[in-house]
Amino acid sequence: MQPKAQKSEAVVERRKGPRKALNIIVQYQPLEAADAYGSRDFTENISAGGMALRCENKINVGQELLLTLCLPRPEKRAVLKNILICDESESEKVRLKGQVVWNAPIFGGRNIHGVKFKAIALDDVRIFTDFLKEFSLLAYGTNGEELDRF
């Protein structure tokens, strides 16, 4: 019996900061159809530079998205088993533009997508930065400040 071949390629970590396993409500639609009603699903995890989006739809790599994260106001936040409990009427909305950089099928016919944040709505920088601080997601100087504005 021959030994299994070793992988010669090292896995390259491209993330600039820590990632937190949190399920957050996210609304999204293709950027070119920003006026249309989009889909609503959950993050698998999130960082200052991107997120993993878990959904039924398969979204092509390269697709640009308009994203709206529903973050509970700080005084209303509660986390239970990595789920950020959120009454949408009590949430702050953070609008971001992102791009799908990878995708993969997961159980139950669902898909998971890596989304890199590209820009943030000018009015939402403080809300997003405060959220990142609260969940210790700031590292290597990342805090949403380096994202373009729209």
Describe the 3D structure.
- The relative contact order is 0.21.
- The model is unreliable at 1-13 and 139-143 (pLDDT under 50).
- This protein has a 6-stranded antiparallel β-barrel with strand order 1-2-3-8-7-4. A two-stranded antiparallel ribbon has the order 5-6.
- The longest helix has 10 residues, at 125-134.
- With 150 residues, the protein is mainly β.
- It contains 1 helix and 9 strands, in the order E-E-E-E-E-E-E-E-H-E.
- The chain is 7% helix and 41% strand.
- The protein has one domain (25-149): Beta Barrel (Thrombin, subunit H).
What attributes does this structure have?
single chain; 150 residues; mainly beta; Thrombin, subunit H; 6-stranded antiparallel beta barrel; two-stranded antiparallel sheet; 1 helix; 9 strands; globular
As a percent range, the share of strand residues is: 35-45%
Q: How many strands, what sense, and barrel or not for the largest sheet? A: 6 strands, antiparallel, barrel
The shape, in one word, is globular
CATH class descriptor: Mainly Beta
Mean pLDDT value: 79
Number of strands: 9
Helix-residue proportion: under 10%
Question: Which residues sit in consecutive blocks of at least 5 with pLDDT less than 50?
Answer: 1-13, 139-143
Number of domains: 1
The number of helical runs is 1
CATH-defined fold name: Thrombin, subunit H
CATH architecture term: Beta Barrel
- The N- to C-terminal Cα distance equals 59 Å
According to CATH, the homologous superfamily is: predicted glycosyltransferase like domains
Element order: H for helix, E for strand: EEEEEEEEHE
User: How are the strands ordered across the major sheet?
Assistant: 1-2-3-8-7-4
Structural category is: mainly beta
| Rg from Cα | 17 Å
